[in-house]
Q: What sequence folds into this?
């Protein structure tokens, strides 16, 4: 087994209610854990369908105490949130209009305004993308060309685009609960664990190859599954969170809005989170910079 | 002589100090006392008001306790009849209740429908905000019961407005408050701030950052309220816009509380006071209390000649004069609320209070910025 918590780099993310948000329900019945991954999608890994509810002690270890009203969401925590129903309803009103008359900008503008008021660490420039998926999928991450990408923390840049994008927030716009499957360790922890397992090239792997190599090496690495009710969302760490959508058991279309930031060319190595070096230890910040890039990933 | 005072705008009658709940920010003393006003004292009260010469225009009687609905509907049927007997041609009367809403049932709705009273329900928004402060004597939240009362009102088609108290915690939740009002068909809202008065000796809004956060809250709520269809009517915005648009001091926000006998407050024993209604029944080291007399034993002439009233009136006027000299917001405000000055600064003869910083200055800045500038857009962020 790889060493746990080496140098603090692989300390797991904890879940919390994001400061200044109120949700209709707490964590009870919201989180499941599984026994690992299996080959899935077209090029990566998907969660295994052996989810079980968390035991009470697992839940208490994973959930961070709610912070005070003045707190900012730290990069070490993933924050549950809820948007006002009027914004979700406005999105649907727009979605159901004649496509030639659709204008989503006021809806997205209202959403960004709301998230900024709540003092979430929203970057200056953020891309909002809505993905619609069928029920009964173990992976909803799309790769260029429509293939299924599988678990990842960064989307590769497409040909001609400036760079890769990384999700900083996910929102369930659908009318039915959805799930996000995620690995509660940051990418830097994946590198550390592979290094500890003797894989000295781990530092040079591109983001998607790092994730795939990690799951090849540790296929029994358990994942968390987080339930998001309609209008609820999850704010991710700028360090990067390996995640994917999970629509098995759903009956309705899955509609998830993701807020993404551009993170350069897509060829950086692990540890270069969207948040840059700010708020991280020096060693974490240097981890990626010292390593040579591997070039654009192939998917 | 009476032309120097009033005219009466608001008669606040406290038929009982008793309240069936126990809000943590309440300023009312004796809210566990079940004393109630006797019918003969009620009659004497309206007779006294008629004799005072203060009624020179239509005015409103606010039944504000305690909780006014802890008395039965029959009490008010009798009370309204007594008030009608003593009404004059100069002063038509409108009755108003401010209730915590927990006791509203079909009998009350029938009375509201029959009498057409102006009804205000106190609710602080969604349960996570409301239940944090508005609790039963056993410490449980009251939101469910208030919502049941509001449901009754809506079933009967009884119009009402709400008053919500803003605490420091609430300032982070303008969107949630707005959604709550819209979802529950509430279109008229007044925002009170948690004030330092009487037994409530501190406020969560005393914190250093409260003004900034209040301003951000009000700015966002303004956009949300005006973006609703129909727009929500917010008392604070309506009153401030009126004060900004109209330059006369008599229309300023504090004119009512700062004018002697524009407001007359009477408790269940017939004791009388004026200026801010919150003063009634509270102790004062400076004046030996704020009660100026009793409807059973004092004439209006005796009351205004009393040394206590003279001292209170002199200090209120001196405080207003200071505000006029020193405060750039005076033309909108008119001199602040005497109760806030007394309980925050220790004297009516003083100027700025937390209430001023929030409900006057910060609010004026928000309203002026909305009236003067283009609506802010955040689309550039997306």
A:
């Amino acid at each position: 087994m790889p060493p746990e918590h080496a140098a603090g780099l692989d300390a797991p993310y904890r879940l919390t209610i994001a400061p200044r948000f109120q949700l209709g329900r707490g964590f009870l019945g919201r989180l499941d854990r599984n026994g690992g991954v299996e080959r899935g999608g077209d090029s990566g890994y998907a969660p295994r369908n052996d989810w079980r509810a968390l035991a009470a002690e697992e839940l208490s270890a994973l959930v961070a105490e709610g912070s005070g009203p003045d707190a900012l969401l730290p990069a070490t925590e993933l924050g549950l949130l809820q948007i006002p129903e009027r914004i979700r309803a406005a999105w649907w009103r727009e979605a159901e209009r004649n496509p030639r008359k659709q204008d989503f900008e006021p809806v997205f503008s209202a959403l960004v305004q709301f998230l900024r008021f709540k003092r979430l660490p929203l970057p200056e420039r953020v891309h909002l993308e809505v993905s619609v998926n069928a029920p009964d999928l173990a992976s909803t991450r799309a790769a260029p060309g429509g293939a299924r990408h599988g678990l990842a923390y960064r989307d590769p840049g497409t040909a001609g685009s400036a760079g890769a994008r990384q999700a900083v927030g996910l929102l369930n716009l659908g009318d039915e609960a959805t799930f996000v499957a995620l690995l509660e360790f940051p990418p830097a922890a994946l590198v550390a664990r592979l290094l500890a397992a003797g894989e000295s090239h781990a530092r040079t792997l591109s983001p998607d190859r790092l994730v795939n190599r990690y799951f090849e090496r540790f296929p029994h690495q358990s994942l968390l599954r987080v339930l998001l009710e309609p209008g609820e969302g999850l704010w991710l760490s700028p360090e990067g969170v390996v995640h994917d959508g999970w629509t098995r058991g759903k009956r309705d279309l899955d509609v998830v809005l993701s807020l993404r930031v551009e993170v350069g060319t897509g060829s950086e190595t692990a540890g270069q989170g969207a948040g840059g070096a700010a708020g991280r230890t020096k060693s974490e910040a240097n981890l990626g910079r010292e390593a040579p890039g591997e070039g654009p990933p192939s998917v | 002589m009476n032309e120097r005072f009033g005219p009466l705008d608001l008669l606040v009658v406290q038929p009982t100090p008793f309240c069936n709940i126990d809000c943590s920010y309440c300023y009312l003393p004796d809210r566990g006392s079940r004393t109630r006003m006797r019918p003969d004292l009620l009659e004497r009260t309206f007779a006294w008001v008629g004799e005072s010469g203060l009624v020179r225009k239509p005015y409103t009687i606010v039944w504000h306790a305690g909780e006014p609905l802890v008395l039965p509907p029959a009490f008010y049927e009798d009370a309204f009849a007594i008030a009608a007997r003593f009404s004059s041609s100069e002063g038509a009367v409108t009755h108003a209740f401010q209730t915590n809403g927990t006791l509203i049932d079909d009998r009350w709705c029938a009375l509201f429908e029959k009498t057409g009273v102006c009804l205000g329900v106190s609710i602080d928004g969604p349960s996570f905000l409301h239940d944090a402060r508005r609790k039963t004597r056993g410490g449980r939240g009251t939101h469910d019961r208030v919502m049941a009362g509001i449901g009754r009102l809506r079933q009967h088609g009884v119009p009402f407005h709400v008053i919500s108290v803003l605490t420091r915690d609430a300032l982070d939740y303008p969107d949630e408050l707005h959604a709550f009002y819209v979802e529950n068909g509430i279109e008229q809202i007044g925002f009170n701030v948690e004030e330092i008065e009487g037994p409530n000796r501190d406020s969560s809004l005393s914190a250093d950052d409260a003004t900034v956060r209040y301003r951000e809250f009000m700015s966002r709520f303004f956009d949300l309220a005006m973006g609703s269809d129909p727009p929500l009517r917010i008392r604070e915005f309506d009153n401030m816009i009126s004060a900004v648009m109209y330059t006369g001091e008599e229309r300023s926000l504090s004119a009512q509380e700062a004018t002697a006998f524009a407001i007359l407050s009477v408790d269940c024993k017939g004791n009388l006071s004026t200026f801010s209604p919150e003063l009634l029944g509270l102790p004062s080291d400076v004046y030996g209390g704020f009660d100026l007399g009793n409807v059973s034993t004092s004439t209006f002439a005796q009351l205004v000649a009393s040394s206590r009233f003279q001292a209170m009136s002199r200090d209120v006027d001196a405080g207003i004069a200071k505000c006029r000299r020193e405060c750039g917001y005076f033309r909108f405000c008119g001199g602040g609320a005497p109760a806030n000055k007394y309980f925050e600064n220790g004297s009516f003869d003083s100027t700025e209070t937390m209430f001023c910083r929030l409900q006057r200055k910060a609010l004026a800045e928000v309203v002026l910025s909305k009236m003067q500038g283009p609506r802010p857009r955040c689309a550039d962020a997306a």
